[in-house]
Design goal:
By secondary structure, this protein is an all-alpha fold. Helix content is 54%, strand content 0%.
Length: 79
Amino acid sequence: MSNLERYNTVFTSVFNVELDALTNDFSSETVDNWDSITQLSLVTDIEDEFDIMLDTEDILEFKSYEIGKKIVAKYDIEL
């Protein structure tokens, strides 16, 4: 499984959506169930999946599918 597939699996699992829902517009502003609890689950699952520890600043900025890709890339995870 590629890193992108792993990343997508975390998103589809946390948000309980199909893969085709993960578009550039998938963000905390457009997804109804993206709240603080879901944010925590997302961050925890991303950290577990890729064996990384996100900085506080990155956790606070992790507000969309696309931004998340850039944040994960900062930890040498190629998507």
